[in-house]
Amino acid sequence: MFDGEVLKDYLIGEGISKVGFTKVNLSEFPSLDYGVALVLKLPRQAIQLLLDDEFKRYWKIFHNQIDILTDIALKAESLIKDNGYDAFALTMQRNECDMEKLLSKLPYKTLATTSGLGWVGRSALFVCEEYGSAVALSGILTDMPLDVGQPITDSYCDDCEECQKACPVDAINPKKWNSRLNRSDIIDIEACSEYVIDQFKSGLGCSKCLSNCRLTQEYFKNKR
Question: If DSSP codes are grouped into helix, strand and coil, which group holds residue 72?
């Protein structure tokens, strides 16, 4: 029987690092009321490149991970449809990311946190225990019934402020994330996006909040 466990095993077998299921309510897809969260860890080499300010090489690896995620999500979409359900892979292109406002149709980290795979750090990046923020995210919408995870609604960052200290434009606010807050409560997204876009135009980048995350560093150093 094709069910959530079979789908999860398929996705893990294809290389996805973590898979979670959640309920969704997206007006554009009213009949697709389940979401599949996909988490793909970044290679440790990518973290080393960030630490070395080798952004062009980092972005090449990161976008390769996005390509892998896209390929797997589209194959899973076909698999779900082949088994009698509807599905829509939320690839980056389909999710219509707004680079100026750093917004998408359905934030991947919303799928991931409500699936119970992790939380949102002070940096407004998704964080999970195994890989910190060194991940790429994607998702799938479906009408296939799934056993949903327990949502994580509060930050597990405790007193860690490493990402906040590392931010070059002081965009990260002291307040820890919880699901009742707006994004603007934890980060000055205008200051962040303006700096990030300027860096991109110069062929550089800024992911210091990612590379300095304590859990990212544990993943990088412990080689777990």
Answer: helix
Mean predicted lDDT score pLDDT of the chain: 91
SS (H, E, C) 91-153: CCCCCCCECCCCECCCCHHHHHHHCCCCEECCCCCEEECCCECCEEEEEEEECCCCCCCCCCC
Nearest partner of 34 among 83, 97, 90, 72, judged by Cα: 90
Q: Is 139 exposed, middle or buried (0-12, 13-18, 19+ CB in 10 A)?
A: buried
List the structure tokens of 79.
């698999």
Domain of residue 118, residue span: 4-222
Hey, CA dihedral for 101, 57, 63, 121, is it positive or negative?
Answer: negative
Integer Cα distance of 79 and 215 in angstroms? 34
> Tokens 């402020």 label which residue?
161
On the question of pLDDT at 214 being above 90, the answer is: yes
At 140 the pLDDT is 97
Name the domain count of the chain: 1
Residue pLDDT, tens place only, 69-117: 999 999 999 999 999 999 999 998 887 655 444 446 788 999 999 999 9
pLDDT in tens, 165-180: 999 999 998 889 999 9
Number of neighbours of residue 33 by Cβ within 10 angstroms: 17
**Interatomic CA distance for residues 127 and 106, integer angstroms:** 17
